[in-house]
Amino acid sequence: xxxxxxxxxxxxxxxxxxxxxxxxxxxxxxxxxxxxxxxxxxxxxxxxxxxxxxxxxxxxxxxxxxxxxxxxxxxxxxxxxxxxxxxxxxxxxxxxxxxxxxxxxxxxxxxxxxxxxxxxxxxxxxxxxxxxxxxxxxxxxxxxxxxxxxxxxxx
Length: 155
Fold this sequence. Notes:
Elements: H1 8-30, H2 42-64, H3 72-103, H4 106-112, H5 116-120, H6 123-145
Helix pairs in contact: 1-2, 1-3, 2-3, 2-6, 3-4, 3-6
Protein backbone atom coordinates (compact mmCIF):
# COMPACT_ATOMS: atom_id res chain seq x y z
CA UNK A 1 0.00 0.00 0.00
CA UNK A 2 1.24 3.45 -0.85
CA UNK A 3 1.86 5.72 2.11
CA UNK A 4 0.30 9.16 2.28
CA UNK A 5 3.81 10.61 2.18
CA UNK A 6 4.06 9.60 -1.48
CA UNK A 7 1.33 12.06 -2.44
CA UNK A 8 -0.86 10.44 -5.08
CA UNK A 9 -1.82 13.80 -6.52
CA UNK A 10 1.79 14.64 -7.22
CA UNK A 11 2.39 11.24 -8.83
CA UNK A 12 -0.61 11.67 -11.13
CA UNK A 13 0.29 15.23 -12.13
CA UNK A 14 3.94 14.42 -12.81
CA UNK A 15 3.05 11.26 -14.71
CA UNK A 16 0.58 13.08 -16.96
CA UNK A 17 3.13 15.85 -17.49
CA UNK A 18 5.78 13.25 -18.29
CA UNK A 19 3.43 11.45 -20.66
CA UNK A 20 2.82 14.74 -22.48
CA UNK A 21 6.54 15.53 -22.68
CA UNK A 22 7.36 12.07 -23.96
CA UNK A 23 4.55 11.92 -26.52
CA UNK A 24 5.08 15.44 -27.85
CA UNK A 25 8.60 16.70 -27.15
CA UNK A 26 10.58 13.45 -27.22
CA UNK A 27 8.69 12.25 -30.29
CA UNK A 28 9.26 15.59 -32.01
CA UNK A 29 12.98 15.61 -31.25
CA UNK A 30 13.41 12.02 -32.35
CA UNK A 31 11.67 12.82 -35.63
CA UNK A 32 14.61 15.10 -36.45
CA UNK A 33 16.94 12.09 -36.54
CA UNK A 34 17.31 10.86 -40.12
CA UNK A 35 16.60 7.27 -41.07
CA UNK A 36 19.59 5.09 -41.78
CA UNK A 37 20.81 4.42 -45.31
CA UNK A 38 18.94 1.13 -45.51
CA UNK A 39 15.66 2.80 -44.51
CA UNK A 40 15.60 1.32 -41.03
CA UNK A 41 13.66 3.32 -38.46
CA UNK A 42 15.76 2.17 -35.51
CA UNK A 43 17.71 5.43 -35.19
CA UNK A 44 14.76 7.66 -34.32
CA UNK A 45 13.23 4.90 -32.18
CA UNK A 46 16.39 4.56 -30.09
CA UNK A 47 16.72 8.34 -29.75
CA UNK A 48 13.07 8.53 -28.66
CA UNK A 49 13.61 5.82 -26.03
CA UNK A 50 16.73 7.52 -24.65
CA UNK A 51 15.03 10.93 -24.45
CA UNK A 52 11.97 9.34 -22.82
CA UNK A 53 14.17 7.61 -20.23
CA UNK A 54 15.93 10.91 -19.45
CA UNK A 55 12.57 12.67 -19.03
CA UNK A 56 11.32 9.93 -16.70
CA UNK A 57 14.56 10.05 -14.72
CA UNK A 58 14.27 13.81 -14.22
CA UNK A 59 10.61 13.62 -13.26
CA UNK A 60 11.35 10.73 -10.88
CA UNK A 61 14.04 12.78 -9.19
CA UNK A 62 11.63 15.72 -8.94
CA UNK A 63 9.03 13.49 -7.30
CA UNK A 64 11.41 11.52 -5.08
CA UNK A 65 13.40 14.46 -3.71
CA UNK A 66 10.56 15.18 -1.27
CA UNK A 67 9.87 11.53 -0.38
CA UNK A 68 11.41 9.44 2.34
CA UNK A 69 14.94 8.53 1.32
CA UNK A 70 14.79 5.18 3.05
CA UNK A 71 12.04 3.96 0.70
CA UNK A 72 13.41 5.49 -2.49
CA UNK A 73 13.50 2.31 -4.55
CA UNK A 74 9.93 1.40 -3.68
CA UNK A 75 8.72 4.93 -4.36
CA UNK A 76 10.58 4.94 -7.67
CA UNK A 77 8.98 1.65 -8.67
CA UNK A 78 5.53 2.98 -7.76
CA UNK A 79 6.19 6.12 -9.80
CA UNK A 80 7.41 4.12 -12.80
CA UNK A 81 4.53 1.64 -12.74
CA UNK A 82 2.05 4.51 -12.36
CA UNK A 83 3.64 6.20 -15.37
CA UNK A 84 3.40 3.09 -17.51
CA UNK A 85 -0.23 2.47 -16.51
CA UNK A 86 -1.24 6.09 -17.16
CA UNK A 87 0.49 6.00 -20.53
CA UNK A 88 -1.32 2.81 -21.55
CA UNK A 89 -4.66 4.15 -20.27
CA UNK A 90 -4.13 7.42 -22.14
CA UNK A 91 -3.45 5.49 -25.33
CA UNK A 92 -6.64 3.48 -24.83
CA UNK A 93 -8.82 6.52 -24.15
CA UNK A 94 -7.34 8.58 -26.99
CA UNK A 95 -7.85 5.66 -29.38
CA UNK A 96 -11.49 5.32 -28.42
CA UNK A 97 -12.27 9.02 -28.58
CA UNK A 98 -10.17 9.52 -31.70
CA UNK A 99 -12.23 6.88 -33.47
CA UNK A 100 -15.46 8.31 -32.08
CA UNK A 101 -14.65 11.86 -33.19
CA UNK A 102 -13.35 10.76 -36.60
CA UNK A 103 -16.34 8.59 -37.46
CA UNK A 104 -19.08 9.83 -35.14
CA UNK A 105 -20.16 6.23 -34.70
CA UNK A 106 -20.19 4.08 -31.59
CA UNK A 107 -20.27 1.04 -33.86
CA UNK A 108 -16.85 2.04 -35.22
CA UNK A 109 -15.55 2.31 -31.66
CA UNK A 110 -16.87 -1.18 -30.94
CA UNK A 111 -14.96 -2.48 -33.98
CA UNK A 112 -11.71 -0.87 -32.80
CA UNK A 113 -11.82 -2.23 -29.22
CA UNK A 114 -10.57 -5.75 -30.10
CA UNK A 115 -7.44 -4.18 -31.63
CA UNK A 116 -6.25 -2.92 -28.23
CA UNK A 117 -5.19 -6.29 -26.79
CA UNK A 118 -2.81 -7.08 -29.67
CA UNK A 119 -1.42 -3.56 -29.20
CA UNK A 120 -0.63 -4.43 -25.58
CA UNK A 121 1.30 -7.55 -26.60
CA UNK A 122 3.54 -5.59 -28.98
CA UNK A 123 7.23 -5.06 -28.23
CA UNK A 124 6.63 -1.30 -28.06
CA UNK A 125 4.62 -1.85 -24.87
CA UNK A 126 7.64 -3.53 -23.29
CA UNK A 127 9.78 -0.58 -24.35
CA UNK A 128 7.20 1.79 -22.82
CA UNK A 129 7.23 -0.13 -19.54
CA UNK A 130 11.02 -0.15 -19.66
CA UNK A 131 11.48 3.58 -20.15
CA UNK A 132 9.02 4.32 -17.35
CA UNK A 133 10.01 1.73 -14.73
CA UNK A 134 13.79 1.34 -15.15
CA UNK A 135 14.83 5.03 -14.85
CA UNK A 136 12.37 5.64 -12.00
CA UNK A 137 13.67 2.59 -10.11
CA UNK A 138 17.31 3.61 -10.71
CA UNK A 139 16.70 7.13 -9.44
CA UNK A 140 14.90 5.72 -6.40
CA UNK A 141 17.76 3.31 -5.77
CA UNK A 142 20.35 6.12 -5.94
CA UNK A 143 18.28 8.27 -3.59
CA UNK A 144 17.87 5.35 -1.19
CA UNK A 145 21.63 4.71 -1.23
CA UNK A 146 22.14 8.26 0.01
CA UNK A 147 19.84 7.70 2.99
CA UNK A 148 21.51 7.63 6.40
CA UNK A 149 22.01 4.17 7.81
CA UNK A 150 20.15 3.30 10.98
CA UNK A 151 22.43 3.18 13.97
CA UNK A 152 22.74 -0.09 15.83
CA UNK A 153 23.89 -0.23 19.41
CA UNK A 154 26.23 -3.04 20.26
CA UNK A 155 26.59 -4.03 23.91
